[in-house]
Amino acid sequence: MSHRLQVLISPELDAELHKAAERGRISKGEWVRRAINQALQQPGKNRPGHDPVKRLAGLHAPTAGIDRMLSEIEAGRS
């Protein structure tokens, strides 16, 4: 059983959606369904609360001031 979902978008976004659907030779509804499905298949990405900075901080990688980091990078190139 299908469900109807109504989403309000700007005229500019609607025009972009129209172009994208035309390029794919599909309806706007099908384009949106595929986009939603694709987004749901990528866990964490493009979801509320996904913060790439927090993810990087969670790696606990070594850090230093910019001058030291640049000098270490240059030293590693030698």
Largest sheet: none
Enumerate how many helices there are, as a single number.
4
What gyration radius follows from the Cα positions, in whole Å?
Answer: 22 Å
Helices and strands, in order, run as HHHH
Shape, per Cα inertia axes: elongated
Secondary structure: helix percent: 55-70%
Write a brief caption for the model.
The protein has 78 residues and is mostly helical.
Kindly describe this structure.
The chain is an all-alpha fold and 78 residues long. Helix 1 crosses helix 2. The radius of gyration is 22 Å and the shape is elongated. The chain contains four helices and no strands. The longest helix is centred in the middle third of the chain and has 14 residues. The protein starts with 10 loop residues before the first helix and ends with a helix. Helices cover 58% and strands 0% of the residues. The protein has one domain.
Task: Please specify the SSE layout and strand pairing.
Elements: H1 11-23, H2 28-41, H3 52-57, H4 66-77
Question: Which structural traits does this protein have?
Answer:
58% helix, mainly alpha, 78 residues, 4 helices
